Amino acid sequence: MTQFAVFVLHGLAYAGLLFLVSSGLTLVFGMMNVLNFAHAAFYMLGAYFSYSILQWSGNFWLSMLLCPLILFVIGALVERFLLRRVHQHGHLHELLLTFGLAYIITEGVKWIWGNYSLAVSLDGFLTGQVSLLGITYPVYRLFIIGCAVAVGTAMSYVFYRTRVGIIVRAAVDDHEMVNALGINVPLVFMLVFAVGAALSGFAGVIAGPLLTTYPGMAAEILVDAFVVIVVGGFGSLGGALLASLIIGQLQAFGVLLVPKLSLALIYLLMAVVLVVKPSGLFGEEA
Amino acid sequence: MRRRSGNPGSVFPGIALVGGLLAAPLFLPLYHVNLLTEVIVFALYAVSYNLLLGYAGLLSFGHAMFFGTGAYVTAVALAHLPGLSVGSAILLSVAAATLAGVVTGALLLRHKGSYFALLTLAFNALFYAVATKWHSVTGGDDGLSVNRPNLDFLGVHLDLSDITTFYYFALITVGALIGYCWHFTHTAMGRTVLLVRENEERMKFLGYDTNISRLLLFTFTGALAGCAGSYYALFFEFTSISAISIEMTTTVLLMTFIGGTGSFLGPVLGALVYTLLHDKLSDITDRWPLIMGLIFIVMVLYVPGGLSGLIVSIRERLAGTAGKNAAQPLEGRKP
């Protein structure tokens, strides 16, 4: 029973991370109809920046604050000066651009930080263990779950309860109409893209101490985030949440029950969803 | 997409190209003959990719799953079936890639555009994972070495371990395949694919099952990529997980895009430029992927037609200057 609880928590921690990455991705896609292949590369940049900030200051909280800000600026610049430029050429070029960007970022990371994994070490209470209802569990994983819950709550509050959220949701539905109502939609696009990048960077920071920081980490999480989007449905925040939770548990229990097939499980899930409901659990029918 | 068939102006450069390729080993050093063989193998891979991207308008990030399947099947078959001929190994690879194409295509083609692109990447990751984990068959990270058998066909005996002989073998067989692809784009099926890209609604209305034609094309390009993968395994006499990785998809994407998706031979040019650049750049710097990536981004931003698009527009500009000058006064008179 205790083992069961531990694996549920493991699954939740990974789900939290996945949700942080995929929510930004799905938001940007829902709104701008741009599938950002560089999204996971932003996540990786977050992890690497965090590593460097930790080396320099030793303060994890500082990197948690700074990295999303840096990624926000990078995201805004990418949208304003690269993505917007190719928008007129159509979909294919936007995909190609973000794919090329991901490639360059990965190569750049290999150049600057080296093509090997770096260990991010923490100190303070985050490294400790906590005893709860008879199980001992690392604080850091609970911290990740807490972060995901906090960010998810904040996001859904902004998205569903504020004026900014209404504008964003309206722009997802019909950006031309919103533009005609006097709202600067290109600016909204830029900010949403930047927020997506910042979220991804934040996920990268908190992923650093949990997973290893290495140049392949982007491709690894990208595929999982894609599966989340396929299963949850494109552009749906609720779908991203549910799919993250399912995949988190699937990963955790897959390792426990069928270690050899654990990797295949999430693809199996994806294939089933594709056959049964191609638009995803929460997706609208195409 | 412009095609000038039957135009004598496009026949002569073609003959010169074929003649040049046939004569290449006579004046090129062995190192370059080897390099040219690599270009030929990748040219087939890029042509198959362009049938998907340029002709059908399907952006796939998973083409390496077929390429890698082809490479692995050749490697595994040659290791486990003694006395297997080169031709049979290649055919086995094509059969396996065809099967993979039908199965994955049936799932992938439920979606279009970004969604399709995303799914292809995810499926490629699945194939990659299988190749890495299935250690007993694929050798995992260690890869598999391939023994290139000699060719015995209809009384012809060729020693394929010889670099020049293998070059001719690849040139003639792959050349014929690429020629067949060119023919394919002119068949009813090839035309259908093009028209479905342009206006799917209308094609459906005209009674075409567009899903079937897309699946057929997807499978066909998968089989071609598998064939290219088989040649790749034979050429390098080695198959590793890099053959089935996302990087191998990136490679073909870069080749095709650099060469230009708008013309049939663009990807061949792309394969040539990419392979030569790779060869030169990797001598100079370890950072060559970064340079390739930068070239790619710059081309996406400023030269979306690729090199062949650039050549066409330069040629038109050179040929069209006189005509345009003459036309200007007419335009001025309109209002």
UniProtKB/TrEMBL annotation, chain A:
GO terms for molecular function: transmembrane transporter activity. It is found in: Cell membrane. The keyword ATP-binding does not apply. InterPro entries: ABC_transp_permease, BCAA_transport_permease. The chain crosses the membrane at residues 6-27, 34-54, 60-83, 95-113, 139-160, 181-206, 226-247, 254-276. The keyword Nucleotide-binding does not apply. Its main location: membrane. Keywords: Amino-acid transport, Cell membrane, Membrane, Transmembrane, Transmembrane helix, Transport. One of its GO terms (cellular component) is plasma membrane. GO terms for biological process: amino acid transport. Belongs to the binding-protein-dependent transport system permease family. LivHM subfamily. This is Amino acid/amide ABC transporter membrane protein 1, HAAT family (TC 3.A.1.4.-). It comes from Desulfacinum infernum DSM 9756. The lineage of its organism: Bacteria, Pseudomonadati, Thermodesulfobacteriota, Syntrophobacteria, Syntrophobacterales.
Automatic annotation (TrEMBL), chain B:
GO terms for cellular component: plasma membrane. One of its GO terms (molecular function) is branched-chain amino acid transmembrane transporter activity. Keywords: Cell membrane, Membrane, Transmembrane, Transmembrane helix. The chain crosses the membrane at residues 12-33, 39-58, 65-83, 89-109, 116-134, 166-194, 215-234, 254-277, 289-314. It is found in: Cell membrane. CDD domains: TM_PBP1_LivM_like (cd06581). It is a multi-pass membrane protein. It comes from the Bacteria. InterPro entries: ABC_transp_permease (IPR001851), LivM-like (IPR043428). This is Branched-chain amino acid transport system permease protein. It comes from Desulfacinum infernum DSM 9756.
